[in-house]
Amino acid sequence: MDTNGTRLPKHTIQKREKNITxxxxxxxxxxxxxxxxxxxxxAQRAILRLDGFVILGKKVDGFEDFFSLCNKVKMVGIRKSFxxxxxxxxxxxxxxxxxxxxxxxxxxxxxxxxxxxxxRALLWIRSIYNEVILQDNFWWxxxxxxxxxxxxxxxxxxxxxxxxxxxxxxxxCGVAKEDRVGYGGVLRDKEGVARALFSSSxxxxxxxxxxxxxxxxxxxxxxAMNWKINDSLFIELGSLVVFSWCVNKVMRQxxxxxxxxxxxxxxxxxxxxxxxxxxxxxxxxxxxxxxxGFNRENMFKAWW
Length: 304
Description:
- By secondary structure, the chain is α+β, with helices and mostly antiparallel strands.
- The chain has two domains: 10-140, no CATH class; 158-303, Ribonuclease H-like superfamily/Ribonuclease H (Nucleotidyltransferase, domain 5), CATH 3.30.420.
- It has helices at residues 10-28, 32-38, 40-47, 62-71, 77-104, 110-128, 136-141, 207-225, 240-247, 257-270, 284-293, and strands at residues 53-55, 58-60, 132-134, 148-150, 167-177, 180-188, 194-203, 232-237, 273-277, 300-303.
- It has a six-stranded mixed sheet with strand order 9-8-5-6-7-10, with helices on both faces. It has a two-stranded antiparallel sheet with strand order 1-2. The protein has a two-stranded antiparallel ribbon with strand order 3-4.
- 30% of the residues are buried.
- The model is unreliable at 19-41, 46-56 and 151-158 (pLDDT under 50).
C-alpha cells in the first residue's frame, strides 16, 4: 500500500522492490562515492517518489529524512563531500522541474533532468574545490571511472588557459560518429567558471560543417546573455579547417556563404570577436559536451 492506504498494483510493488535493491546494493558497495554517479538516473527517479519510499528498511518522509539518511553513508573526506553535493544537486534539479511544471506547465524530460544534474554537480564541485581536477570525458559517459586528482599531484592533467584580461572564451567542438555529428560548447569567465553551455547532435557526416553551425549558436547564446560588460569574445575552435574558414574568406566553400553571412551579422552585434584554435587538452569540457550531445535529438542551451 502507499502512504494513503491504497493497494498498489503488483507490477508497481515489484518495481519499487527492484529500485530498493539497486539502492541497497549501491550503499553496500565500497566504491559508493563513484557508484552514485553511475546510478544517478536511478537515484533521481527515486527522489521523485520520496514520500513513503523505503530505503534499507527505513521509511523516508520527504527530503529532510532522505538527506539525513544519505549523510549516514560510511564515507569520509572529499568523497563524502562529493556524495552530499550530488544528492543536493539532484534534489534541487527535481525541485526546479516540479516548480516549472506546477507554475508554468513546463515539462522536463528525464534525459534533461539527468543532464542538468550532472552539469550542476560538475560546476558546484569545481566552484568549491578549485584544486581538484575531474576527468570531464568520463564524467559524461562513465562516471564511476571518473578520476579525482589534485593540481599538485597530477602532472599530466589538462588545464584550461584563460584568455587575456578583458576577454571571455567560448570553447567549441564538433565530432562525427557514423551518420551523426555531435557538437557542444562552453563559455567561461576569467576565473575559468562555466557561465554558458550548449550540446546537441544532427544527422550529418561532416564535423567541420556542423562546427561552423556551432559558431552561430555560440554568438546567439552570447548575445542572449545580454551581459552589461565590455568584454570581448574569444571563440576557440577544435578544428583547424573551421578556423581557416573563419579567418580567410577565400578558403570557404560556396555552400557556407549563407551561414557565414549570418555569423558576420552577429559578430557585429557582439563587437569584438576573435577566433583561435584550441589545444586538444584545453578543449576537454567542450569535447565532453559533444559526447553527451550524441544522445540528444534536441538542442540543450543554458546560461547563468
